[in-house]
Amino acid sequence: MPNIKSAIKRVEVTQKKTEANKSKKTAIRTVIKQSKAAVAQGTADQDLLKKTQKAVDQAAAKGHMSKQAAARAKSRVAKAVNAAK
């Protein structure tokens, strides 16, 4: 544990940011899993696809996932939704 006041503050700030980022990444994974589950159940539609793509785009814009990972996730969900039709 650090002894210097500024180092103590950095540890606290880092912990808060880590928790926030973790929850955001979890939320993104949840949206993608919900989309896959909807495709498996046959209830997937274009509104769900738009919701998923928006969430993934926002995550990529905020830096919670890379642009390539976002593109890959969007592509896989879109492919699954279109194949389910």
CATH domain topology? Methane Monooxygenase Hydroxylase, Chain G, domain 1
Number of domains: 1
Total of DSSP H or I helical runs spanning 4+ residues = 3
| Top-tier CATH class | Mainly Alpha
List segments where confidence is low: pLDDT < 50 over at least 5 consecutive residues.
none
Indicate the structural class. Answer: mainly alpha
**CATH-level-4 superfamily name:** Ribosomal protein S20
Written account of the structure:
Helix 2 runs antiparallel to helix 3. This protein has a single domain (5-84), classed as Methane Monooxygenase Hydroxylase, Chain G, domain 1 (Up-down Bundle). It has helices spanning 5-41, 46-62, 67-84. The mean pLDDT is 93. The protein is built from three helices and no strands. It is 85% helix and 0% strand. The protein is an all-alpha fold and 85 residues long.
